[in-house]
Amino acid sequence: MDCSGTEAEYDPVQSKLLEEFMCIPNIDKAWIFKSGSGSQAMFVMSQANLLANKRRKFMLATHNSKESEESVKFQLSPFPIEMNGVSAFVPSPSGLKLLVVRNYENESLTQFEIWSSSQLEKEFHIPQKVHGSVYVDGWFEGISWNYDESHVAYVAEEPFRSKPTFNHMGYKKGDSLGDDCGSWKGQGDWEEDWGESYVGKRQPAMFVINVDSGEVQTIKGIPRSLSVGQVIWSPNNKGSAQYLVFVGWSGGKRKLGIKYCSNRPCAIYAIKFTDVSSSRSDESKNGENEAYPIYNLTKSISSGFSPRFSKDGKFLMFLSSKSAVDSGAHRATESLHRIEWPSDGNLPETTNIVDVIHVVKCAEDGCFPGLYSSRLLSDPWLSDEHTLVLCSFWRSCQVILAVNLLSGEVSRVSPSDSNHSWNILALDGDDIVAVCSSPVNVPEIKYGKKILNTYGKLSWQWLNISSPIFRCPEKVTSGLSSLRFKILEIPVSDVSENLSEGAKKPIEAIYVSSSKFKESRKCDPLVVVIHGGPHSLSPTGFSNSLAYLSSIGNSLLIVNYRGSLGFGEDALQSLPGKVGSQDVKDVLTSVDYAIGMGLADPSRITVLGGSHGGFLTTHLIGQAPDKFVAAVARNPVCNLASMVGISDIPDWCFFEAYGDLNHFTEAPSPDDLSRFHQMSPISHVSKVKTPTLFLLGTKDLRVPMSNGLQYMRALKEKGVQIKVLVFPNDNHPLDRPQTNFESFLNIGYWFKKYCKQ
After folding, report:
1. Largest CA distance in the chain
2. Beta strand ranges found along 500-604 (DSSP E)
3. What residues contact 83, with CB distance under 8 A and at least 6 apart?
4. Domain Peptidase S9 prolyl oligopeptidase catalytic: where (predicted)?
5. What is the pLDDT of residue 176?
6. Which of 258, 544, 726, 742 would you call most buried, defined as having the most Cβ atoms within 10 angstroms of its Cβ?
7. Which residues are catalytically annotated?
């Protein structure tokens, strides 16, 4: 066992450099407000706060004006404003009000603030007996102003359910302890949660607050079997009923882990809303609204989420992960659909779902590879009222797309010749505010000006921002300036008649190097980086931690093997049933390709992966024991047979091992366990001799750390050099700031140690 994790190992110069990389801000969200001849923007940014071990949120305001045909000026406010203790903030549709939500960690209450342009207008404290913390998780999360800005709908934890109380006499009736120190609370019935990152979170429920009075209504009529989220308001048509439209997930027989898993069945629902504060009669003074029936608007499809109404209110758009739900893949190629919304507000029993974007099986070279977009902007529409703008993966890049709601035509909005990754932040009328980055370029704001091209079709001219929204430390800028990257197209090695056409197409790997691709220069050590999932993607965007590894003298080979998002459904579905084989071959093929191109020194190649990337990392050092001089596995899947009984996603083990869910059961058979073992890295452990660093999170429910510990102990038993870091308060992503810092500081030193010639 390697016990070299001493202070002498940590060079303060490299520690300081890593800290500077970790503190590069992310640009998370933006809103645009019209202001005279120009516009104003409000950017939400976040930055690692290493001392507090949290992400620091702050807001930056700008005044935007066009300087020239090639440039837009963003006049920044003198200083950003830190949003300390703020869980969410949402501007109203007019931009005249700002809702600020504060969830307090001690669960004493939730605070709502309504701000005008100059001052705090209202403040409301919502006690736990009404509801718990507001969901701001990005999935169940839904905070929506209605059209006249009198109410806000949102999703929060339901109130605490009553628990039994006991005293010296036995059971005590009533739920309140009061001042009775001779009583205590029992635990009551156990309730299942949604797994990874939702431990301790109560059932999501829907509420509406009146922003004038602060009165909160619980929306009745929704069964507890549904977990609700992503609520929006129906169009404000005069004389028609007002509805709340939302997504509902059914727990079924069991709530399987939902984080990173879009294969959980869900539907779009609607329920009528009536404001009890204005309609309360003498017989109804208890503040409770009537329980209206709920309508399932998407009965004929297994998945519907991210609902959005068209500008004219005639259509309801939504995304669907039906290919994931129907196949069992935890994420897959998505589709886009629309239904007509009745102008009179009378919802029919059944709705006609129209496909706008189909699931793409296999795209022609250079053509749209399918939709991979987990959520739409709150207002994604251009002024023509039938074109929406969204982000999606396109092979190894993230791009911005425009979709014609009526024809289904998809066009690329971000530059087609750009190999950077683009993310839309907000629309400024028909113009676009976006963020662009690459493995060697920090995120920067870009402004897309709508124009008509020579063929009369929509196009966008991308203008430079005259002043950057933030500046990096000199050492970071210097370290990045010498780096270059390119996307390698790599033919697959196992083409056969049994493969689908999409699975025969080349894969891609992102190559990052300081050598500027000159073969005459001696190769730097190569780090092979493997994403998890497996149905995920490593896009060409900026990563603070990987940029640090590049800046200290490593080249990177970031492999998007078959099964990754962004390459069509055929390629994605070719992997299940072949994990540990096809994906391993793809990574080895990529490494051999880089060696053959003179981009790597075969004697100085290391490998890094987490989750399924850790599964591949530990497979690779067993199946190719002489290929890698060092390895790092972050919360790795090492033994499917032991993982299946303790993971929050046991279905994942069955699907990836068999290629379908026909075998899924909570009680695996001996044959199942035998197959899981044969397909796991643990089956190759006897051949491993590569020094391996393990990074494990104690609170990981996805791949509980016993999986990594078992594999580590097997290596230790046979004398392989190992090192283990355990983070007691981290779950699967290992993304808390201090954890991320210590992890990559150790990764850098581990690779440096074993790459010395």
Report:
1. 88
2. 507-513, 526-530, 555-560
3. 44, 57, 58, 59, 89, 100
4. 542-756
5. 53
6. 258
7. 611, 700, 732
| Distance from C-alpha of 443 to C-alpha of 547, rounded to nearest angstrom | 12
Cα separation of 400 and 398, whole Å? 7
DSSP assignment letter at 719: T
Please tell me the distance from the alpha carbon of residue 643 to that of residue 681, in angstroms, as a whole number.
12
Structure tokens at 586: 């793809």
- Read off the pLDDT of each residue in 361-378 and give the average, rounded to a whole number: 93
Q: How far is CA 261 from CA 8, 329, 374, 558, 593, in A?
A: 42, 8, 11, 23, 32
Which H helix or E strand runs over 32? strand 26-35
Judged by DSSP in three states, 685 sits in: helix
Phi and psi torsions of 58, nearest 5°: -150, 160
3-state secondary structure of 307: strand
Bond from prior residue into 534 cis (ω within 30 degrees of 0): yes
DSSP code string of 79-115: S-EE-TT--EEEE-TTSS-EEEEEE-TT-SEEEEEEE
The residue among 536, 581, 482, 538 whose CA lies nearest residue 702 is 536
**Greater pLDDT, 36 or 19:** 19
Give the C-alpha distances (Å, rounded to integers) separating 113 from 68, 159, 211, 569. 40, 21, 9, 45
Q: Which pair of tokens denotes residue 508?
A: 């891609």
pLDDT band at residue 518 under the 50/70/90 scheme: low
Whole-number pLDDT of residue 138: 86
Residues 323, 303 contacting (CB under 8 angstroms): no
- The burial of 641, by beta-carbon neighbours within 10 Å (0-12 exposed, 13-18 middle, 19 or more buried), is given as buried
- Let me know: does 444 contact 435? Beta carbons within 8 Å: yes
Q: Would you state the structure tokens that stand for residue 72, as one six-digit string?
A: 């837009």
The encoded tokens of residue 273 equal 């809303």
C-alpha 436/C-alpha 450 separation (Å) is 18
pLDDT per residue as tens digits for the range 526-561: 999 999 999 999 999 999 999 999 999 999 999 999
pLDDT per position as a tens digit, 125-140: 999 999 999 999 889 9
